[in-house]
Amino acid sequence: MSHLLSSLHDQALKLSRRYLACEKELLEILVKIEARKVYLEQGYASLTEYSHKALGLSRDVTWNLVTIVHKSKAIPELKQAVQLGVLPLSKARQIAPHLTRENSEKFIALAQAMPREKLQEALAKECPKIPSVEERARVINATQAELSLCLPKEVMEKIRRAQDRVSESQKKWVGLAETLEQVVEFYLQHKDPKEKAKRHEVRKAKAPVSAKQSRRTVREPDAAARSPELNLRLKNKPKKKGRVPIPAGIKHEVTIKNAHQCTYQDPRTQLRCDKERFLHIHHKLPVAMGGTNALDNLTLLCSAHHRLEHYQSSG
Hints:
Layout (H helix, E strand, L loop, with lengths): L1 H35 L1 H4 L5 H8 L4 H16 L1 H8 L5 H7 L8 H10 L2 H11 L9 E4 L5 E4 L4 H18 L5 H16 L1 H14 L4 H9 L8 H9 L11 H10 L21 E5 L14 E5 H12 L1
Antiparallel strand pairs: 1-2, 3-4
């Protein structure tokens, strides 16, 4: 029995060494892929998307690797420590947000010498302004979710003040969960492109022709009603150079039409991108090729897929 246990232990050691060696090699190749933007050639918008979807890595492993790749541009010693085997990927990811040119040598040495828990305490002490608690949001049941995050003290005081105002308006004590719900709802009503687009649709339905459009119609009669001298002046009037801005009303209609979501469709899975942040309005037919600001020529793309779209169309 002891011989069998020893054999299993030896096999585990060999496999773990191979696993760690592959981890280092993978980090090195991802650095090269990021430098040459190989993922764009493969039809992926970012290194993160490429690592997760093309390479099949889990989200956690992808996050660790990509974080180290990006940080290694400024702090090459981080990548070197991982490749030399003196710093595990998990610890490298742990210290990456805290690293600067000034403290990199110290923190890499701490990471090598300390267990993760002690390292977390040291980082919190050395960098109190950088949250030491990882943000988490997880679903508990069909109607509830749990949120865990680290806030600056000043922000917490503002939330308490908001809690007082919401409690006064409700004429009862209100907890933090309901306070945050009210604050978020208020912000979205004023800032969310979806809500702005809805209000635009309501206004348009109530007043198909705006007062501004009416004044323009009165002030700018058609060519047949204008004097020949005015027509000649308008014809010879120098045109403004540059791209014509997209009217606010058209932007709202693009938002409504595409549900404020990136419209990129993965050619492999036929799934639509689910991003709703950092969205850009994209001209299907480029302006340089005669594309206009007509609604049918406009769509929404997230920043990563917008970059991918222009990369593919240019090459």
